[in-house]
Each structure stands twice: as C-alpha cells, then as structure tokens.
Amino acid sequence: MLGSAGKWAETVVLGWLVLEMTGSPFQVGVVMACRWVGYGLGPIFGALADKYDRRNLLLIISSTSVLYSLALALLVTTGLVQFWHVTVIALVAGVAHGFDMPLRFAFTSDLVENRTLTNAVALNAVAIDVTAVLGPAIAGPLVNVIGVHGVSWVLAGSYALNVVALNIIRGAGTREKAAEGSISSRLKGGARYVLSNRPIFGLLGMAIAFNLFQFPLRYALIPVFADKVLHVGAAGYGFLLAASGSGALVGAATVAYLADFRHKAWLCLAASAAAGVAAWAFSMSPWFSLSLVLMGFVGMAEAISMTTMAALLMSLTPNEMRGRVMGVRSLAVLPNSLGSLMAGSMASHFGAPAAATVNAALQVSSILIIALMVPSLRKSG
User: Which residue from 39, 169, 267, 335 has the fewest beta carbons nearer than 10 Å?
Assistant: First the structure.
C-alpha cells in the first residue's frame, strides 16, 4: 500500500510541477508519457519474475523508487529543477513501475491458493484503490500548504517505508530455476502461450485500449481540467483523482465481495465500455461538484474492469507462466505513453473537453470491436 500511495502522490507532484513550470498541457502529457515507457520492458520483467526470488526483486525496485524520489525532492527544494530533470525522473519511475506490476501480481499468487486467487487479486486492488483515494487527497492540498518540494520529501518517505514493509515479509516469492533455462527461452515460451490463447489475447487487447484511450484522462488531462476548465487549482486536482480512487475502491470491493463468480468476462466488457461513457460525461461537466461524482463513476467502472481482467488473466494462466503473462500485460500499458501524448496534443489545440470526448468514443468503440471479434473471450470466466 505504501508503494501505491507514493505512486499516486507522484502523479500529483509531477503533473502539477510541470504545469507550474511550463503552463503547457502538452509538456504535462510528455512527462506522463515518460512514466509509462518502462512498461515496454514488461515481458523481460515478467520472465525475471518467473525465474528469481520475487520478494528480493520487489526490494530492489522499491529501493530504486526511494533514490529517484530523493533526487526529485533535492532538485525541487534547491530550485535547480528543470523540465529535462523531471522528464528523466519520470522515465526512471516508469521503469520501476513497469517492473513492479508483473512482480506484484505474480507475488500475490505465491501467497495464496488458486481457489482464493480472485479474492486475493480483488483485495489487492482494494488496497491499491485505498491509496488511490488517500494519495491524491493528501498530496493535492499539501501542495498548497508545503509546496511541491515538501510533498516530494513525503513521497520519498513513503517509498522508504515500502522497503521496510517488504523486509517484514519472509518465506514467499522464491523461485527455483526451471528447465527452461535462459531468459530468452522464457520470453519465447511466454509469447507462444499468449498468442495461442485467444481469451488472454482478447484481454490484452482490452488492456491496450484502456491505456491508449481511457487512462490518459486521469494521467494527462485531469491537471488541465482542474486548472483550465474547472479552475480549482492543485487541491481540486487532488480531489478529482481522489474521487476516481473512491469509485475505484467501491468497484474493487464489489469484485472482492462477489469472489469467484461466473460471467467475469461479461462484467469486464460491460465495465470497460461504461468507463468510456462515464469519461465522456465528465468531459461535458461545467461544475466541479458534478465532475467529482462523474470521476467516481469513471473510477468504479475502471476498477471493476481492470480487477476482473487481472483475475481472468491469473486464473487462465498456470503459476509458472504468470510472471510472463503479467509481463505482457505490463507491455499493454505502454500505449499510455502514446495516449498521453495524443491527449495532451489535442488538449493544447482543441481544449481538454474535446480531447476527452474523442478518447471516450474511441474507448467504447474498441471494446465493442474486441467483444465481437473474440467470441471465446465472452465465454471465459
């Protein structure tokens, strides 16, 4: 939870810092895109997660997060920070987050039995969504109180506490070397498995659509909405993200309550389309209070979709392949970089509401196309 809290606070800090420095929605999109580039290495990270001690790998990644967040805090505090500094730090953060994702999902499967896997994935999502509420809700107002430099130090502290928490967990995550041998052979085996399994292939297609069209609203456009459209400043930006996190908490908790239910694929498809519709409604809202409610619906639909998607991926995959499959899932996050750049560019030329409307239409269209083209996906779960 501490690492997730830091990640959400980091979104507020980087987004608002760049907007303060440059005033450019496009440059906010550039930095947010950099935070997702590391996910392109997801398959390699997943292969490593299937080969080595997952807990030790998580410790290395968490320690890296401490180092880059300390660098950001020092640069902002001394007044030496420049746009290229933030861009480089965002790139390093992207690599760390890209490694963290397949590791944590695979590590979760080490801690629980298969029959409780759906619950574990959903409860993990609940924990993440709690921090998605607390992180922005605290970081946004704190920017007004102690400044970006102060929040940067808090961010470094949260990552340091995450390292301490991981050190407490013992006896899980150790991987024995399998007969597959090299990382390259593992990568090939993972690619063959994903390409031959149509439901998994369809789920990964949905993940790509989400990251290309849906998530740029949260990561690249929300700062612009807060500043240019709703005029609510850094605190309002934090509250918008917190509203999304609150809805996500409700969505993930609902999936956890349903446990190992039937028709997960249908729920995943419906929620994915609903997320696009809710994003379109948000783009049309002229009032901050209504925008908060709509962001709650966006977050809830996103969480239901992404949680059931992760549960389906994990349940359809044997344990020895889960790191690699979730690594490919991380690769599906990479389009967020392109999506953030596209959204930032559209917002610069046509305004944030127009950019969000176009993305919402593309999101819904993509999900409908995948549902029609991959009928085996509708029958899974």
Answer: 169
- Residue 347 in domain: yes
CA distance 353 to 72: 31
> 341 in a domain, yes or no?
yes
Place of tokens 């969504």: 129
For residue 177, being part of any structural domain is answered with no
- Is the pLDDT at 172 greater than 60? The verdict is no
Q: How many domains does the chain have?
A: 1
Residue 39: count of CB within 10 angstroms of its CB: 26
Which tens digits make up the pLDDT trace of 331-368? 777 777 788 888 888 888 888 899 999 999 999 999 99
Burial of 128 (0-12, 13-18, 19+ CB in 10 A): buried
- 87 found inside a domain: yes
- Could you give the CA distance from residue 239 to residue 293 in angstroms, rounded to a whole number? 11
Provide mean pLDDT across the span 158-166: 80
Per-residue pLDDT band for 177 (boundaries 50, 70, 90) equals very low
Rounded to whole angstroms, the Cα distance separating 136 from 236 reads 10
By residue range, what is the domain housing residue 87? 2-170+183-379
CATH of residue 101's domain is 1.20.1250.20
* One-letter-per-residue 3-state SS of the chain: CHHHHHHHHHHHHHHHHHHHHHCCHHHHHHHHHHHHHHHHHHHHHHHHHCCCCHHHHHHHHHHHHHHHHHHHHHHHHHCCCCHHHHHHHHHHHHHHHHHHHHHHHHHHHHHCCHHHHHHHHHHHHHHHHHHHHHHHHHHHHHHHHHHHHHHHHHHHHHHHHHHHHHHHCCCCCCCCCCCCCCHHHHHHHHHHHHHHCHHHHHHHHHHHHHHHHHCHHHHHHHHHHHHHHCCCHHHHHHHHHHHHHHHHHHHHHHHHHHCCCCCHHHHHHHHHHHHHHHHHHHHHCCCHHHHHHHHHHHHHHHHHHHHHHHHHHHHCCCHHHHHHHHHHHHHCCCHHHHHHHHHHHHHHHHCHHHHHHHHHHHHHHHHHHHHHHCHHHHHCC
pTM score of the predicted model: 0.69
**Most confident range, picked from 9-23, 67-81, 146-160:** 67-81
